[in-house]
Specification:
By secondary structure, the protein is mainly α. It folds into 2 domains: about 100 residues, Rossmann fold (3-Layer(aba) Sandwich); about 35 residues, no CATH class. The chain has 7 helices and 3 strands. A 3-stranded parallel sheet has the order 1-2-3, with helices on both faces.
Length: about 130
């Protein structure tokens, strides 16, 4: 095993492209940038289902319970055996989530939260008002 600390962008690209898969057993993650980077480089991803990672990887990752070592071991074994098929199944880059998509989502949240509660189409207050009107 080789550990590469603080790789350059070129080294990181080479690591993703040569890897059989990225294994990401996160128990807590704010966004999961490595998942998106790996998919962008055409690297299969085995990722935790216990965090926000499914929002990043969508249907393009294989997910596992990070508390279940046997499940992860089985998934790693099947990935090693079918690594070429997994790479072939990955989407084209233009089908992957991009930073522009994240920005649009953030703006939607900001716009929704800056609208008075009685004007919102969703949220607890809006739902309560709709119930009262019926």
């Amino acid at each position: 095993m080789t550990i590469v600390q603080s790789p350059t962008n070129a080294e990181l690209t080479a690591l993703y492209k040569e890897a059989i898969a990225l294994v990401y057993p996160s128990l807590f993650e704010g966004y999961g940038l490595p998942v998106g980077e790996a998919l962008w480089m055409g690297t299969p991803v085995l990722a935790s289902n216990a965090t926000s990672i499914p929002e990043v990887g969508g249907d393009h990752c294989q997910y596992f319970d990070p508390h279940n070592a046997e499940e992860l071991a089985t998934l790693i074994q099947s990935t090693i055996q079918s690594k070429e098929a997994l790479r072939a199944e990955l989407p084209a880059r233009d089908e992957l989530r991009q930073w522009q998509n994240v920005q649009q989502d953030i703006w939607k949240i900001i716009e929704n939260n800056s609208t008075p509660p009685d004007k919102r189409s969703s949220g607890a207050e809006g739902k309560q008002q709709k119930l009262e009107e019926t």
